[in-house]
Amino acid sequence: MKIERVTIGNLAAGFGRIIRIALIAFIVGVMAISAKQAWAQAAATGEGVAAIVNDQPITSFDLRQRTRFLLITSGITQATPEIVQQASQQALSQLINERLQIQEAAKFKVYMGDADVDRILANQARQNGQTLEAFYTELLEAGISIQSYRDKTRAEVLWQRIVSGRYGSRIKISRGRIDEFLNRVLATSNRPQYQMSEIFIEVANSTETEEALAGAATLVAQIRSGASFARIAQQFSFASTAASGGDLGWVIQGELRPEVATIIDQVPVGQVSDPISVQGGVMIFAIRAKREGQIPLATYKLKEMSKSVAADASETVWRHAEEQVRAAKTGLRGGCDGVTRAAARNNISALDLGQVAAIELSEVFNSNLQNLRQNQSTNVFRSAQGVHVLVVCDVVLSGPDIPTREQIEDQLTDQELSLIARRYLRDLRREAAVNTRF
Questions:
Q1: Statement to judge: residues 285 and 321 lie in one domain
Q2: Into how many domains does the chain fold?
Q3: Cα separation, 50 vs 85, whole angstroms
Q4: For the segment 99-143, what is each residue's pLDDT rounded down to a tens digit?
């Protein structure tokens, strides 16, 4: 998941998918109104006030609209009083966040008018084979205010601009972090794997844990009764995967939190877990598939330094050959580029083996190549033909869900940016003056 995304949503008629947009420029902002004006504004429209966020109102109409939106897009068919209450609380939390996001955008003089929002939505509607007018008609038929939906989209886009603009260029994923991630994937790739989806209900403090567990249990009951896990995740989950319906993809057993792993092992395919209390909140998991782990396939680009030794040669001859090859390895400079020079200086052979799959190599070659990376070399070893050192010019690992280095970098960057965004918003909420009437 990248932070640059807009969610058109999945209403009952099925309009929209998660999409990505490039967010770049900064524009002009808005000013907050006083608390007195906020109450007057709400009264003028004949609506009560559900909350005031730094002197800006959230009306009862706003709250009803968002609650309805959450229930429709979650696909919940039996809206019990408990579900409606939870949806209302979630809706109010979302609306408070959006007010804070728009206020923060105004502080940095970033603004987006209705026409700009419509252009974004029109573009995404075209990508989904739909016109903006048809999309808006479906909104109205579902009882959702067009302006309410515009405001939701505006807050999402402005927030993404602020987070990306302030922090995007600061995130640098080191080669070491990528290596560490890849090594962890490779080390555990032979363990059982789960194709999973998640819902994370955030808990601000420990006093809210019981309430969150009860709310999560209600969601689990709805999902088990036929409600869409993905739609509920999109509307109720605080995880970074919410926009993609909670999709975690394939997860290796060893990567799960300990408190989660013991439960997930017992959940059958196609079923959803009971709520699980974790640090910071409550989680629900759906197990979509399971499979046994597989050892990744390696393809190497290799160069070799070697000294031929007759099979019946004395141990003294073998040791002398080992000393020559070891001296070449010690004097090797520049990785693969230096192989020919190092071999020549020590009167041994240099050979370019080209690109070769691990399964095509002998057992002794394979065992010495384990866990080596680009421009690393093996220890000196013997074979029936003589003494060898292999230098890895490149290695490509393939197999189910073995990510490329670029994919790992993107994933780690997304995680960093998502974590920053959550902390940023949490700080705004902590510092804000929020007066709720709900």
A1: no
A2: 3
A3: 14
A4: 999 999 999 999 999 999 999 999 888 887 889 999 899 889 888
